[in-house]
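INFO batch 0412 | record 1 of 1 | parsing
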Amino acid sequence: MDTVEANDEDVPRDLVCHVDSAGNTYDFGFGLNWKGVIDDNRVSTYAKVAPLTEPQSVSIQL
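INFO prediction complete | emitting tokens
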């Protein structure tokens, strides 16, 4: 929450980027692909899963 409260809502991209344990920095927009549908080995694991078209019911037991 400290990170959220520290940003200025009227200043774009003012948050500190995440840096993982290997030293890789994940800047704004990292991993986004603006060239259409991603269809390669990154999605092969989930290609067999049917899309969620109806809300799933959740059962909560107290």
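INFO post-check: The first helix runs from residue 2 to 6.
INFO record closed
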